[in-house]
């Protein structure tokens, strides 16, 4: 996010700048086949109490960015090669491993997509939740147990006292995801990163879980980064959106504007290509081609081979993030055209 | 449930109003998986009632969408239709014959006409076979469809039809992306020129930008080859897009079925209403005026379903009657003879129309 960068000094205190400020982040994976450039200069920021949705397809770099922020990138093969991750005024990349470990879990926490494989199958949930308090807060096991029950009640797991001795496989998908949320919430972090938290869930359960997450966020005034590929979920909960493609942010915008008037052809293509529950269309618009191979990202704009507006300049010059308005930016040479031609046919009506 | 196909009000979306003779009739289909205990002396201690009395018709050239959450039995229905599972009871009538009773040569002939497209294009293609072998394999089993010398040409034609380069015939599945693999799966399904294609979550494993390509392809092929689709998915938006009629399943039963407009714009069953209201709509404007029904709790275990109405444990309308009396799938009394879009089969004692999807602009 190119916005608001000027407002805060780099090492600005916790009160001045945003809660989290990611600047020019580059991550690459050194594999046997070559170097995969997974993240190429991502910038975004999140304030306390704000929800940023990071939208992208598989391979767009949205999860890798999150892993870099959390400091849980598999390294090797993954390496952060450039950039800053400023969280509460401190660049996380300059901290020691021990210092980062103290931040992780206590100040920022993560919720993963697949709760079954993220929870330890041989420990009951009470032990796993309690661990947060014995390790980070030095509580006794008895105190930790009481805290664990409290947490489970807070995420609305019925009969928490009895269920604390249950193992992850004894919970349903939705309940497991609640346990994951409870674990992330345990130490009342300022920032939560949720990576596809509801993708594996059924719609009715998805609604319950998103509802819970939104309630907790409001209650504790947390910053929330919601990583997803679902434009519907984003519309329901996000304040602002960052759309990623081939490791770059191609568009950032407050949630309202982007759906009405996308400023990047990729965003526009995505919006046009999803069937709507409330509209029975004829043929769906389909973005041609496939997302690029990260080993061989096309020169110029990475989206150019799939873009209906692509011209010579797109094949040679990487578009910077152009400022579209106070709060919006688009990495398209022809963003004015995208905004303009949108008023004519396509999506609604 | 026993209701015969009701003479529905003429539907504008129906591609062939004249040909209203169903191609496939499913009647009271039941599949219970036994739960056993003991190792040497197995005794049955119960049964998972995966499918419990499902009836519907499939008409030529139409798409019937089946929606429901995981565990509702929609994939088991697909397997039963393919004769991959033997039903506990019930009938599947294809061209006047109950295919659940067929075996040997007769079954083989029927199978040629009903083909399947699977959800996961990564596991449903044999990694050791070339694309040509995968798509051509059906011809080995049904050699009468294509003579030996013609097969390669046929496979290349099929690749062309699904939008892949015919020169890829000697490549292996791993050389393709997810969307391309799903096209290969579709080409294999088309090889024998079937009349019915059962597609179980065909696009849910694909990226959003690729889903539209595959959905469009399926629609084009339907027109080209006059296929009937049974389209099973949990994504209600995609089902609406592709389907002429939609059935909603919950815990092994169809709770509501009707034309797409009837289900999406005039749902009368509370489960359908809750399901529709829970779907996130990609429109932040809708956040304000949409009423969301958030169901409490989880789907009960199909091994021990609630008495009476199976949805009653999560239903906000549930009353004493729902506990003791099972609602049948029929036009609810209040809507009988109204000739409106609310007049369609719905298995609820207290059926009531409720608009949960914002009307089309």
Mean pLDDT of chain B: 86
CATH H level, superfamily name of the largest domain in chain A: P-loop containing nucleotide triphosphate hydrolases
Overall geometry of chain B comes to globular
CATH C-level class of the largest domain in chain A: Alpha Beta
Residue fraction in strands of chain B: 15-25%
Element pattern of chain A in H and E: EEEHEEHEHHHHHEHEHEEHHHEEH
Number of helical elements of chain A = 13
- Helix and strand pattern of chain B: EEEHEEHEHHHEHEHEEHHHHE
Overall pLDDT confidence of chain A: 85
Q: Regarding quaternary structure, how should these chains be classified?
A: heterodimer
- How does the major sheet of chain A shape up? 8 strands, mixed
Distance between the termini of chain B: 35 Å
* CATH architecture call of the largest domain in chain A: 3-Layer(aba) Sandwich
Q: Count of helical segments of chain B?
A: 11
The CATH topology annotation of the largest domain in chain B reads as Rossmann fold
Low-pLDDT residue intervals, each spanning 5 or more residues of chain A: 1-14, 342-349
Shape of chain A: globular
Number of domains of chain A: 2
Q: Strand order within the widest sheet of chain A?
A: 6-7-8-3-9-10-12-11
Give the CATH superfamily of the largest domain in chain B.
P-loop containing nucleotide triphosphate hydrolases
């Amino acid at each position: 996010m190119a916005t608001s960068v000027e407002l805060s000094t780099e090492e600005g205190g916790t009160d001045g700048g945003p809660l989290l400020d990611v600047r020019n982040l580059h991550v690459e994976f050194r594999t046997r086949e070559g170097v995969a450039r997974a993240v190429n200069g991502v910038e975004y920021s999140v304030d306390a109490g704000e929800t940023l949705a990071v939208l992208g397809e598989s391979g767009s770099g949205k999860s890798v960015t999150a892993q870099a922020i959390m400091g849980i990138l598999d390294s090797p093969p993954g390496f952060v090669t450039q950039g800053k991750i400023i969280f509460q005024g401190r660049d996380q990349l300059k901290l020691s491993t021990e210092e980062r470990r103290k931040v992780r879990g206590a100040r920022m926490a993560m919720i993963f997509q697949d709760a079954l494989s993220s929870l330890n199958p041989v420990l009951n949930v009470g032990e796993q939740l309690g661990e947060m308090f014995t390790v980070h807060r030095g509580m006794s096991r008895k105190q930790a147990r009481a805290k664990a029950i409290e947490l489970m009640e807070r995420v609305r797991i019925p009969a928490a006292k009895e269920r604390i001795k249950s193992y992850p496989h004894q919970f349903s998908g939705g309940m497991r995801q609640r346990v994951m949320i409870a674990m992330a919430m345990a130490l009342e972090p300022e920032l939560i990163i949720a990576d596809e938290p509801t993708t594996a869930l059924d719609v009715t359960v998805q609604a319950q879980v998103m509802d819970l997450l939104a309630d907790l966020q409001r209650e504790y005034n947390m910053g929330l980064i919601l990583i997803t590929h679902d434009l519907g979920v984003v519309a329901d909960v996000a304040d602002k959106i960052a759309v990623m493609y081939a490791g770059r942010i191609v568009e950032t915008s407050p949630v309202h504007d982007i759906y009405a008037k996308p400023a990047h052809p990729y965003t526009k293509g995505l919006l046009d290509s999803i069937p709507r529950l409330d509209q029975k269309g004829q043929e769906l618009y389909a973005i041609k081609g496939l997302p690029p191979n990260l080993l061989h990202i096309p020169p110029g704009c990475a989206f150019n081979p799939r873009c209906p507006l692509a011209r010579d300049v797109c094949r040679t010059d990487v578009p910077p993030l152009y400022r579209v308005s106070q709060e919006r930016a688009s990495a398209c040479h022809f963003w004015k055209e995208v905004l303009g031609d949108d008023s004519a046919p396509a999506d609604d009506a | 449930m026993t209701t015969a196909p009701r003479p529905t009000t003429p539907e504008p979306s129906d591609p062939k109003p004249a040909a209203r003779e169903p191609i496939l009739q499913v009647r009271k289909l039941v599949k219970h998986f036994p739960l056993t205990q003991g190792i040497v002396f197995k005794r049955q201690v119960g049964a998972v009632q995966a499918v419990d009395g499902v009836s519907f018709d499939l008409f030529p050239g139409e798409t019937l969408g089946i929606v429901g959450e995981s565990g509702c039995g929609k994939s088991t229905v697909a397997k039963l239709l393919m004769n991959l599972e033997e039903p506990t009871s019930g009938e599947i009538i294809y061209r006047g014959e109950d295919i659940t009773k067929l075996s040997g040569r007769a079954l083989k002939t029927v199978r040629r006409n009903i083909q399947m497209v699977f959800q996961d294009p990564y596991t449903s293609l044999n990694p050791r076979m070339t694309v040509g072998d995968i798509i051509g394999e059906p011809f080995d089993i049904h050699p009468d469809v294509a003579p030996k010398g013609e097969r390669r040409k046929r496979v290349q034609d099929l690749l062309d039809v699904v939008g892949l380069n015919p020169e890829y015939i000697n490549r292996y599945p791993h050389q393709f992306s997810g969307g391309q693999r799903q096209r290969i799966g579709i080409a294999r399904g088309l090889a024998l020129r079937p009349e019915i294609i059962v597609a179980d979550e065909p696009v849910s494993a694909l990226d959003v930008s690729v889903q539209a390509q595959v959905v469009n392809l399926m629609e084009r092929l339907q027109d080209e080859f006059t296929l009937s689709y049974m389209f099973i998915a949990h994504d209600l938006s995609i089902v609406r897009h592709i389907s002429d009629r939609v059935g909603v399943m919950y815990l092994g039963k169809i709770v509501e079925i009707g034309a797409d407009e009837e289900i999406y714009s005039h749902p009368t069953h509370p489960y359908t209403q809750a399901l529709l209201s829970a779907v996130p709509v990609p429109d932040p404007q809708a956040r304000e005026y949409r009423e969301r029904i958030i169901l409490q709790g989880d789907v009960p275990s199909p091994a021990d379903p609630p008495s009476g109405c199976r949805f009653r444990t999560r239903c906000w309308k549930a009353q004493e009657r729902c506990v003791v009396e099972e609602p049948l799938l029929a036009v609810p009394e209040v809507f009988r003879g109204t000739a409106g879009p609310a007049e369609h089969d719905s298995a609820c004692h207290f059926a009531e129309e409720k608009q949960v999807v914002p009307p089309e602009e």
